[in-house]
Amino acid sequence: MAKQKANIAILGATGVVGREITKIIDELNIEFNAIKFLSSAKSAGTKLNFQGREYTVEEAKPESFDGVNIVLASAGGSTSKLFAPEIVKRGGVLIDNSSAFRMEKDVPLVIAYVNDEDLKKHKGIIANPNCSTSQLMLVLKPLNEKFKIKRLIVSTYQAVSGAGLKAINELRENTKAALNNEEFTPDAFKKPIAFNVIPQIDVFCENGYTKEEMKVANETKKILHLPENLPISCTAARVPVFNSHSEAVDIEFEQKVSPDEVREILQNSFGVQVIDNPENFEYPTTRDSSGVDPVFVGRIRKNLAFDNGISLWCVADNLRIGAALNTVRLCKKVIEMELY
Ligand SMILES: NC(=O)c1ccc[n+]([C@@H]2O[C@H](COP(=O)([O-])OP(=O)(O)OC[C@H]3O[C@@H](n4cnc5c(N)ncnc54)[C@H](OP(=O)(O)O)[C@@H]3O)[C@@H](O)[C@H]2O)c1
Fold first, then answer.
1. Is 225 designated active site?
2. Of 28, 58, 67, 336, which is least surrounded by CB within 10 A?
3. Model confidence over 247-270: pLDDT tens digits?
4. From the CA of 29, how far away is ligand 1's center (Å)?
């Protein structure tokens, strides 16, 4: 007998990611029995239009999760930690966008169409990877399958939307102030973001890397089931771009590899679009990728520092594949695989 349609809740519905999740639930035609929208007390009472109906955003409380089968959460780590036991206790499945549970052993960390099988191991919580890791996975998975990754270096150029609504507003206000020669005190960032590049995302760890950089290394290994000791190094910078993260990626492989082979594999990979004609100035930029689903790849070339090395440029909408799109794809998989 087919399972009953799920009751769904969006936790963090008034945030940047939550709003995108809501849009994509509609775009991907997710079938549900009922849906509710939750936020903190601050935005409770906000009216939302969804599929031709008006909904009132409610303040999230433990009782909000009574009868809810799947919760799509993007309300920050502390909120997820607060509500996860309440959701699981009531039999719900939490698909969480925060970093709170990503590296926990019992929590599958999944990019849809990359490691779907891991979903079957969930014990109530499924984690959505960090945005800069997410866009890389659809690119690295088919290349790892064919040529086996030996070493990986990633440099990220991350948009302000990755830091939430406050950060988006700060780029706008800071830019206006800078153009008018006015004083500006940063709040969302440690330094002024207008006309600047900030080599810090999240806090620093003891090894001199930031948490964001270590997330890329650790999450990549967990998702692709790579050996713990495989060398991965990342430098993450915040750039004054509203949306879409860019990444310069250098990969050394075990097997011999050519740029043409990589181009062909990626051209035929799910969720990836290759734009790679530099002689005609054709390569992906943040403007190409904002608001659409594919992870774009270009500038595919032989890496001159590694044996069997490839360098490439990878751009994607961090709010979509980096957060909301993968969250909703995971929800779709959980429904299809009847894992709720
Ligand atoms: N932006 C990205 O690219 C990205 C990518 C991957 C993961 N994430 C993660 O997704 C989460 C949200 O990011 P965002 O950019 O959407 O942030 P945001 O724009 O600041 O939105 C935060 C949302 O969480 C709600 N919230 C905050 N505290 C709450 C509480 N105690 N109870 C219930 N709801 C609460 C807020 O409600 P109010 O409106 O009432 O404040 C709002 O709806 C973060 O964990 C972030 O790390 C973001």
1. no
2. 336
3. 999 999 999 999 999 999 999 999
4. 24
Domain 133-317 is in which class?
alpha beta
Binned at pLDDT 50, 70 and 90, residue 3 comes out as confident
Per-residue pLDDT reduced to its tens digit, 109-143? 999 999 999 999 999 999 999 999 999 999 999 99
pLDDT at 168 exceeding the cut of 90: yes
Q: Is 64 in the pocket of ligand 1 (CB under 6 A)?
A: no
CA–CA separation, 226 and 270 (whole Å): 21
What pTM value is reported for the model?
0.94
Domain spans of the chain, in order of start: 7-130+323-336, 133-317
Annotation: CATH topology of 7-130+323-336: Rossmann fold (3.40.50)
Q: Is 131 a catalytic residue?
A: yes
For the chain, the residue count is: 340
Please choose, from the candidates 277, 312, 273, the residue with its C-alpha nearest in 3D space to the C-alpha of residue 293. 273
Residues 6+ positions from 304 with CB-CB distance below 8 Å: none
- Residues β-bridged to residue 272: 295
224 pLDDT higher than 90: yes
Alpha-carbon torsion 14, 165, 186, 317, what sign? positive
Tell me the CA end-to-end span of the chain in Å, nearest whole number. Answer: 15
What DSSP element (H or E) covers 136? helix 131-147
CB of 75 closer than 6 angstroms to any ligand 1 atom: yes
